[in-house]
Amino acid sequence: TALPPCSMNPANTGHPMKSKWGRKLFVRMGATALGAIGLLIAVVVIWPGQFLNVVLHIAGLDVRIESVDANLVARNMAFENVIWTDNDAQLQGSASKLEFVGFALQDGQIILQDLKLENVKLTEISSDDIDTDSVPNSNTSTPEWKTIWDGFLKGVAIQHIEWNHVHSAWNDRQSIDLYNGVCDGLKLDVSGIELAPLTWSSATVVDPNFPEAVEIQSSEIQGFWREHEWHLESTGLNIPGFETKGEISWPDMTGQGELQIDWGLLPVWATDLGLQPWIHDLNLANEKTVISWDLRQDKWAARASGPSWFSLASNGSRESWDISMNLREIPEK
């Protein structure tokens, strides 16, 4: 009797089933990958604020952000309604908006083309409000400047900064408000701090030593600080009754500049220091005084002119000095 034909090729018996199973596995893996990518896009792009808040919470940072607008291709990012707390620095902060434009990381240095701040508030935390259990290093002294840059971060460079209002307060009695400011460059690294021209439209200083707030008009400052030297200069620093411009460096104590005092425009806090009777007795209400200086390493000179009846000039070097004064009259009471 003849046997029925059969195939002895094992490849022919199992191949159709294996191919079908392999295609299903490939489809499932592809669908899973696409789903993961879609979820990542949804979390990072559609809900970046929630995603960033979770990351900050996992990192142990007390920061809350309401919304984030990110354009990673253009290297731009904006945060709205940001609130943060730094117990180590005893500082609380908030901002209605922080916008970073053109950010990059190069050789451990953070680089920003533009930083825009809106309604920033920085407030010192009272020691009574700090949870000491959450601050394991609360007794650690402030690190030295150079040790800050020992880690991954080697520096920060910002090409342009602008803000509409920055409020800083401490001791519940002292505060500074800066309005409509622009800084043309700020650099921080292990060598120190470099500040390009910084201007503001107005500023308000509150201090218990002043009977009332001091209003500082439109002004400009720039300079640098290093561990063993600093330099400060200004094209115009305007306080009621005082206008100054010039530069000065330390430790060389070199520089030149000018200070103009308008006695009639001195604020109440200055006259309350006991100057008011003096201004009245010497008839200074309509007078001005201009003081100038030119300090160099090998010689120096200083002059004072005003009130109208007084002038003084002095100069000197390491070997000698000279001073002269002109007093035409002493005003009567």
Protein traits:
single chain, 333 residues, alpha+beta, 20-stranded mixed sheet, 19% helix, globular
List the helices and strands and how they pair.
Elements: H1 10-46, H2 48-58, E1 62-71, E2 76-86, E3 91-101, E4 104-106, E5 109-112, E6 114-124, E7 155-158, E8 161-170, E9 174-183, E10 186-189, E11 192-206, E12 214-216, E13 219-226, E14 229-239, E15 242-250, E16 255-262, H3 268-281, E17 288-295, E18 299-305, E19 310-317, E20 321-327
Parallel strand pairs: 5-7, 6-8
Antiparallel strand pairs: 1-2, 2-3, 3-6, 4-5, 7-10, 8-9, 9-11, 10-11, 11-12, 11-13, 13-14, 14-15, 15-16, 16-17, 17-18, 18-19, 19-20
Helix pairs in contact: 1-2
Describe the structure.
The protein is α+β, with helices and mostly antiparallel strands and 333 residues long. 19% of the residues lie in helices and 49% in strands. It contains three helices and 20 strands. It has helices at 10-46, 48-58, 268-281; strands spanning 62-71, 76-86, 91-101, 104-106, 109-112, 114-124, 155-158, 161-170, 174-183, 186-189, 192-206, 214-216, 219-226, 229-239, 242-250, 255-262, 288-295, 299-305, 310-317, 321-327. It has a 20-stranded mixed sheet that branches. A hairpin with a 2-residue loop joins β10 (186-189) and β11 (192-206). α1 (10-46) packs across α2.
Which parts are unreliable, with pLDDT below 50 for 5 consecutive residues or more? Answer: 30-47, 132-140
| Strand portion | over 45%
Rg, alpha carbons: 33 Å
Shape, please? Answer: globular
How many distinct helices?
3
Integer average pLDDT: 77
Beta strands, count: 20
The amount of helix comes to 10-25%
Structural category: alpha+beta
**Could you spell the SSE succession in H and E letters?**
HHEEEEEEEEEEEEEEEEHEEEE
Cα-to-Cα separation, first versus last residue: 149 Å
> What about the largest sheet?
20 strands, mixed
